[in-house]
Amino acid sequence: MDNLTRELSGYNLYTSDLALQEGVCRAGAGAHEAELEAYGALLGSQSTLRMAEEANHHKPELHTFDRQGRRIDRVEFHPSWHGMMRMAREHGMITQPFADDRPGAWAAYAAAFSMHHQIESGSQCPHSMTLASVPVLCQDPELFEALAPKLFSRRYDPRDIPLEQKDSILVGMGMTEKQGGSDLRTNTTRAEPVAGGYQLTGHKWFFSAPMCDAHLVLARSDGGLSCFFVPRYRPGGSKNAVQIQRLKDKIGNRSNASSEVEFHGAWGRMVGKEGRGIPTIIEMANITRLNCVMGAASLMRQCVTQAIHHARQRHAFGKRLVEQPLMQNVLADMALESEAATQLMMRMAEAFERDDSPLERAYQRIVTPAGKLWSTKRSIELSAEAMEVFGGNGYMDEGPMGRLYRETPVLSIWEGSGNVMALDLLRAIAREPEAMLALRDDLRQGCAGDAALRPHVAALDALLAPSADPYLQEAQARRHAQLLATLIQARLLRERAPSAVADAFIASRFDHAHGRIYGTLPASAALRTIIDRAWPV
């Protein structure tokens, strides 16, 4: 026996994930199951895993000028990047919730997105933004009618040509500037009216992703901060004046390109009402924040899968790692966190598809920032713990854990950091009091049978009540978000998961002795049952 772990490959990401399958069925998305199973098998194949590794090994290259000195601002990608992009497009994943009229399209999208993200995260950035652009573009019916066939297309078209000539397109975002970051009110990019549109002058510090065929951009017009549709090519076919200054050297995935750009009279078309740019583009951000929850859940899932796969093969001190009681506690604890995130992701996806009732609005508007804050923070901790299961080999970049570990922090930062999410939670509650009442009543009902949860539901009531001291309300905002997110996860697990999973989650997450390190589940936890559910392969 050489005691070396076999690389995890040749498995089906969908059929090996019981919680994900159950979530798809519960959402009424059974018509999508055959496609999800086929995509899960393709993603877990050796050829796809190798393609994902190559896409992250060969970084994008910026070509600012052609050989004659003409400005082209073109980003060149490795063929493996295009392979990952083509897979997602051909499987209809990019704009599925808006293009697929079968029931459960949002749940099916969440499942497909999370599986793809486990294998290659960088390609999900332009996909996420393209999906999120749809409700924003719908505010300009004429523009959306022209773009819809290309947004909904299943043909991948990487050509750098005017979007009118393309079979399919990608849409990115350009909001933040170097002097303000998340404080979009400080943006200085100007938009001056010209014949047929606007002319933009200024910069964007984060422009994702530069190879997209168009971007939704914030700029100041005479009426205030407004949203603009800025294509790579002007309507007449000439290159638009969006100049890429450099590609960002990111900590996480190497496959995708993020950039800084300057606008030197770039042509744009206003979308939405003038002076209402932030509310207009926030419609986009609400979906991409949901994607961040999906991304965190997917990275946790892949970390747990890799850790259990390794522990079942590796021997130490006379036993397989998975047979060691303390390692069982660690693996089971991580598995609980992963399933809780998956359940939250699927319930949030359901809300985006259902009727606009107060409870569903609460999941869209209130749970989204709380869920993003909590799940992304927990994914960072879990990825480090999973790396530790591998010992020194986990710290080597030859294996899968380095890429997973480096990718987790961006989800906490992108589309609003933890503080921004906590403050958005408070604002959402103030704007949607009826929705918050519906969520509170749902938690009361769902948690009524658990004595350990009832006092926390009551505490949530007090924490989220209007405060006479705004300073304290804001200072405690992260506590509010953490409590709300964990209560929702407990409520969902009690309703949707086996009792062994729900019991262990509730017994640990609401016990101060559990702490913040994994592997401190109480003696009552059914460790092997939890591990075997997480990875039944």
TrEMBL record:
Which SUPFAM superfamilies does this chain map to? Answer: Acyl-CoA dehydrogenase C-terminal domain-like, Acyl-CoA dehydrogenase NM domain-like
A single Pfam family, by name? Acyl-CoA_dh_M
**Which ranges does the record mark as transmembrane?**
none
Which cofactors go with this protein? FAD
Please provide, alphabetically and separated by semicolons, the GO molecular function terms listed in this UniProt record. acyl-CoA dehydrogenase activity
Say if the entry is tagged with keyword Flavoprotein.
yes
Write out the entry's keywords from A to Z.
Answer: FAD, Flavoprotein
- Domain Adaptive response protein AidB N-terminal: from-to ranges: 3-158
Keyword Flavoprotein belongs to the record: yes
Annotated Acyl-CoA dehydrogenase/oxidase C-terminal domain residues? 275-429
Q: Which InterPro entries does the annotation name?
A: Acyl-CoA_dehydrogenase-like, Acyl-CoA_DH_CS, Acyl-CoA_Oxase/DH_mid-dom, AcylCo_DH-like_C, AcylCo_DH/oxidase_C, AcylCoA_DH/oxidase_NM_dom_sf, AidB_N
Where would I find the Acyl-CoA oxidase/dehydrogenase middle domain in this sequence? 173-264
Family of the protein in this entry: Belongs to the acyl-CoA dehydrogenase family.
Question: What name has this protein been given in UniProt?
Answer: DNA alkylation response protein
